[in-house]
Amino acid sequence: MRKGVFLFFFLSAFLVSCKEGPERRLPYYNNASFTPQFLEKAPEDFHKVRSFALTTHTNQAFTEKDMDGKISVVNFFFTSCPGICPRMAINMKALQDSFLTDDRIQLLSHSVMPETDDVPTLQKYAGAKKVDSKRWLLLTGNRSEIYNLGRKFYFVEEDLGEKRDTATFLHTENFVLVDKQRHIRGIYNGLNVASIGELIRDIRELEKE
What we know:
single chain; alpha/beta; Glutaredoxin; 7-stranded mixed sheet; SCO1/SenC
């Protein structure tokens, strides 16, 4: 059985199983150690994704305000990547299909090579990967802004204490779950089917808040 077909049936079964069971609250995270903090509500000064300005593959402006009121799944990729990115795209497509009619959810893939991944390049990639722009957006823009977001606000790299700048390539398989107030609520291995199943379960829980 092809991997994509297997993933579809696995996640479909997982979604059914997740509709029942006790409700639980997801933790909050405020630094790269991903130490969970179980809070009834995050205080006003709690870590959240800061302001930014990027461009989508549909050539529309996209800022932090477009995240407000939506649950977001965030990852980082580049269109010419021959390694982990194609596998992450398969799993993002599975997430897209799982929440295709749910306007509360959006998937955000940031290019870490924006100097080559311009809007036309992203549009071509979106067509090849069957990206549905009403649920999944590919983002490009200023390299420094994207790298700063990934490392300092989404915490997608786990090399604690090691200083990095835009000259150090950002390459990670992590998917990050962000709530409607732009707080970090989970991190997942974007290459692992079981981890994607956990992400789907946690999205369902977050929708209850």
